[in-house]
């Protein structure tokens, strides 16, 4: 019997609470599907489109800052009301991107299950995260999600 998976969500926290949230969503097995930092391929453009359409699909939700990296995305998402939960938004985003990518290649398993989130609790926290997202492309080789195969794939 497999061990039960521990939820990555903050225990007891209501993810419909109006707030700023930092999220990270990783590609399945951290495969570099999305191109290179600052040079997205067509799959990366689909992920970018999915992020940019979040506010259109969810009234009361804003996308503050984001980056599509070779094998993950980071974003600051703002819930302005209590209409929808953060896990629902991310689930819909992942489903949208997966459906679009499967039109090109139905065999790709696009995303890892779940996502990482951080409830932004202060202006200093917000600025630290905003700067992290902004500088992420320039520090790609130092990123915890960096995989040498991503660079080798880009060079071939």
Shape: globular
Query: What percent of the residues sit in helical stretches (DSSP H or I)?
Result: 25-40%
Which structural category fits the helices and strands? alpha+beta
N- to C-terminal distance:
42 Å
Q: Return Rg in Å.
A: 16 Å
**Total E-strand runs:** 6
Largest sheet: 4 strands, antiparallel
Average predicted confidence as pLDDT: 89
Oligomer classification: single chain
Order of helices and strands: EEEHHEEHEHH
Low-confidence stretches: none
Helices, by number, come to 5
Main sheet: strand order: 4-5-1-6
* DSSP strand content: 15-25%
Protein architecture, described:
By secondary structure, the protein is α+β, with helices and mostly antiparallel strands. It has five helices and six strands. A four-stranded antiparallel β-sheet has the order 4-5-1-6. It has a two-stranded antiparallel sheet with strand order 2-3. A hairpin with a 2-residue loop joins strand 2 and strand 3. Helix 1 packs antiparallel against helix 3.
